[in-house]
Write a structure and sequence with these properties.
2 domains; Transglutaminase-like; Transglutaminase-like domain-containing protein; Papain-like_cys_pep_sf; transmembrane helix; 6 strands; membrane
Length: 375
């Protein structure tokens, strides 16, 4: 089964190295090392399970506590520490997977620190009877070699599991094809890892990773809450003028939708520069307001700035938009909270010139929320 693949040789080296260690340590030393490995593995699994249970139980309480705090968006000129704190706390409040992951890391760290000494003591107590067995002699060293081989096999299985998880998470990753070319890896994965894990790693892990990636995108998008918080006077005055005489959140939101959608022109040159040369420049709402040009994210950020100027609760949403040719591409739009109706109203000012995209019934058919939500 040996081949020229580096992964194959790494797995073999792990087993051979453990075998040599076992021969050198003898029976008693090898048993002690094996028990340390097994106890450590059991404690590690228990720590993961307990941490997940604790995070799951505490998560809704943390969200409720954060909602009761009524986080205030910091001013643009505030310290980086306060900006980071607002982004982190609002992320914990709004993003369930991010909140679960953060709590899991906290509980897992606490549990592992608390059980570190216990693990060593327990392994030492269990292995104590073997410490009185002589380590020398051919029999002891042969037994030590067998135990070392078993320990090496366990380490190789653990290493293979990590590689298997990597391949499941990144099927198009830079090393995935090379890893899967290893004969020994394929054999262990098909005979041991896949039957033991079932569909959990191959099916559920990529789904979780994609959802987590989406939430991290949302967390990144929350920076707009800070950098766009400073509303220029011309944007404020324009928003007040546009919504003058409008009663209720929906009427104000509609007036701003009509204004942004009809006044701003889509910047095809900006898209072309990005697609052909990889050049991207991020413009703030003031720039979009002044030049009357931008792409979807610029429309959405300008709309959000004007909506906030007239005290509307608004957020920027990123995801995928239907391209009219049977596919989807990166897109951004807005949602406005209607106090009277207690719901979020979706709107897409970028598409306003092509039809009515203000709270339409088929909005979710053409807009797939995948990235961030801010506000």
């Amino acid at each position: 089964m040996l081949d020229a693949n580096l992964v194959t040789w790494l797995l073999v080296i792990v087993v051979v190295f453990s075998l040599i260690q076992g021969v050198r340590r003898g029976a008693s030393g090898s048993v002690r090392q094996l028990l340390f490995f097994l106890v450590g593995a059991v404690v590690a699994i228990l720590a993961v399970v307990l941490s997940a249970m604790a995070a799951w139980a505490v998560s809704p309480h943390l969200q409720t506590w954060l909602l009761e705090r009524s986080l205030v968006r910091p001013e643009p000129n505030t310290s980086l520490f306060k900006q980071f704190g607002y982004t982190a706390l609002s992320g914990l409040r709004d993003l369930p997977l991010f909140r679960f992951a953060a709590l899991f890391l906290v509980f897992h760290t606490i549990i592992r620190l608390a059980t570190a000494l216990f693990t060593r003591v327990l392994a030492s107590v269990i292995s104590f009877p073997f410490s009185i067995v002589p380590t020398g002699g051919s029999v002891s060293r042969s037994v030590g070699g067998l135990i070392g081989t078993a320990l090496g096999t366990g380490r190789a299985l653990l290493f293979t599991s990590l590689l298997f998880a990597y391949c499941a998470l990144f099927p198009q990753g830079p090393m995935t094809d090379y890893i899967q070319q290893s004969t020994l890896y394929r054999e262990v994965a098909s005979q041991v890892i896949r039957p033991a894990a079932g569909n959990m790693l191959e099916k559920q892990l990529p789904v979780f990773a994609q959802a987590m990636s989406s939430e991290l995108d949302q967390l990144w998008q929350k920076r707009y809450d800070v950098i766009d918080a400073d509303l220029p006077d011309d944007i404020v005055q324009a928003a007040i003028s546009v919504t003058k005489g409008k009663d209720g959140d929906e009427d104000k939101a509609r007036a701003l939708y009509d204004w942004v959608g009809s006044r701003v022109t889509y910047d095809n040159e900006k898209v072309k520069a990005y697609e052909e040369q990889g050049d991207w420049w991020e413009q703030n709402p003031e720039h979009t307001f002044t030049t009357r040009k931008g792409v979807c994210i610029d429309y959405a950020r300008l709309y959000a700035a004007m909506a906030r100027a007239v005290n509307l609760d608004v957020r920027v949403v990123t995801g995928l938009g239907y391209d009219g040719r049977g596919g989807y591409g990166p897109h951004a739009w807005n949602e406005v909270y209607l106090t009277e109706q207690q719901r979020w109203l979706p709107l897409d000012s970028t598409w306003a010139k092509s039809g009515n995209w203000f709270d339409t019934s088929d909005f979710t058919d053409t807009h797939i929320r995948q990235g961030g939500i801010t506000g």
